[in-house]
Automatic annotation (TrEMBL):
InterPro entries referenced in this protein's UniProt entry, alphabetically: FA_desaturase_dom, Fatty_acid_desaturase
PANTHER family per UniProt: DELTA(8)-FATTY-ACID DESATURASE 2 (PTHR19353:SF28), FATTY ACID DESATURASE 2 (PTHR19353)
Intracellular or extracellular location(s): Membrane
TM region(s), chain numbering: 12-30, 36-57, 69-90, 184-202
Family under the similarity heading: Belongs to the fatty acid desaturase type 1 family.
GO cellular component assignments: membrane
Protein name, UniProt field: Fatty acid desaturase domain-containing protein
GO molecular function: oxidoreductase activity, acting on paired donors, with oxidation of a pair of donors resulting in the reduction of molecular oxygen to two molecules of water
Domain annotation Fatty acid desaturase: ranges: 35-306
A biological process term (GO) from this entry: lipid metabolic process
Keyword annotations of the record: Lipid metabolism, Membrane, Oxidoreductase, Transmembrane, Transmembrane helix
């Protein structure tokens, strides 16, 4: 059908919107004195990070520019320079996520101990085959996971801090990192312009407000990533070659929305379609969706598509179920005084 060859103008439009938003942010901070203008600039910066991440995601899956060199440059600019998150770190984790979608011990996108656990199987201290270490379900993890359905959104508001740390840990590790020098240079660009921008704000309270607001807006994207997989089916072990298609359909969840929202969701509302055809350009995902639906129906495979609200409800239910299981006294995780004090009855 020619869908792989027809890429549309999504990358150009997204980059243009990023450039416009960056100009608005600079004007709001440098030329305006109102605290409301600074607040608005922070919100625009959050949207800029969201759209910039989508371009980095697209360029990581398929070539959005005219050559591989320009495509790599687009990745470094949209990822490292503008968001402060290394494209090398993203490729490292994202490739594993696509290969072993929703495998508890192989998919790094589900391994968030001690803050989150989508399944009680994590309570057995699974060994992460991706990170090569045990995911210890210790007293701290048990306490935090017991309230994860309440802390989910607050944690998402500051989730970028973890991504910055993960970036630095990888780039300065002994692991072989493709284009390490370029990635480090891109990160240095981010940690030059972002603190410099903050320095033009009049005082520390406004700087704190600016950072927190921009992070909170970007949390919408972090939440979206969780909605696509947290409430879907999970399993332990690597996917077998013959059941890869089934694992992708059972481990993903689409977000139903109108076409005018495609820009906001970056195409990832068609998560199943994206997982089945990772190199398919973003503008083709809505077109291939009916084909995927028919294929799933033909082979009696799940195709879950929920509204943004219902997807949030489903995710919170999944987190709450695991939280209640973590509180169960029948679990053998060791307790401490803090745990006993918070959960005292009578």
């Amino acid at each position: 059908m020619g869908m792989f060859e027809t890429k549309g103008h999504v990358a150009f439009c997204s980059l243009a919107s990023v450039a416009v938003m960056f100009a608005i942010v600079l004007y709001g901070v440098l030329r305006c004195d109102s605290v409301w203008a600074h607040l608005g600039a922070a919100m625009v910066l959050g949207m800029l990070w969201i759209q910039s991440t989508y371009v980095g995601h697209d360029s990581g899956h398929y070539q959005v520019m005219s050559s591989r060199g320009y495509n790599r440059l687009a990745q470094i600019i949209t990822g490292n320079c503008l968001t402060g998150i290394s494209i090398a770190w993203w490729k490292w984790t994202h490739n594993a996520h696509h290969i072993a979608c929703n495998s508890l011990d192989y998919d790094p996108d589900l391994q968030h101990i001690p803050f989150f656990a989508v399944s009680s199987r994590f309570f057995n201290s699974l060994t992460s085959c991706f990170y090569g270490r045990k995911l210890n379900f210790d007293p701290l993890a048990r306490f935090l996971i017991s309230y994860q359905h309440l802390t989910f959104y607050p944690v998402m508001c500051v989730a970028r801090v973890n991504l910055y740390l993960q970036t630095l840990l990888l780039l300065f590790s002994n692991r072989k990192v493709p284009d390490r020098a370029f990635n480090i240079m891109g990160i240095l660009v981010f940690w030059t312009w972002f603190p410099l921008l903050l320095s033009y704000l009049p005082n520390w309270p406004e700087r704190f407000m600016f950072v927190l607001t921009s992070f909170a807006v970007t949390s919408i994207q972090h939440i979206q990533f969780c909605l696509n997989h947290f409430s879907a089916n999970v399993y332990v072990g690597p996917p077998n070659g013959n059941d890869w298609f089934e694992k992708q359909t059972s481990g993903t969840l689409d977000i139903a929305c109108s076409p005018w929202m495609d820009w906001f969701f970056g195409g990832l509302q068609f998560q199943l379609e994206h997982h089945l055809f990772p190199r398919l350009p973003r503008c083709q995902l809505r077109k291939v969706s009916p084909v995927v639906k028919d294929l799933c129906k033909k082979h009696n495979l799940p195709y879950r598509s929920l509204s943004f609200w219902d997807a949030n409800v489903s995710t919170i239910k999944t987190l709450r179920t695991a939280a209640m299981q973590a509180r169960d006294v029948s679990n053998t995780a060791p307790k401490n005084l803090l745990w006993e004090a918070v959960n005292t009855h009578g």
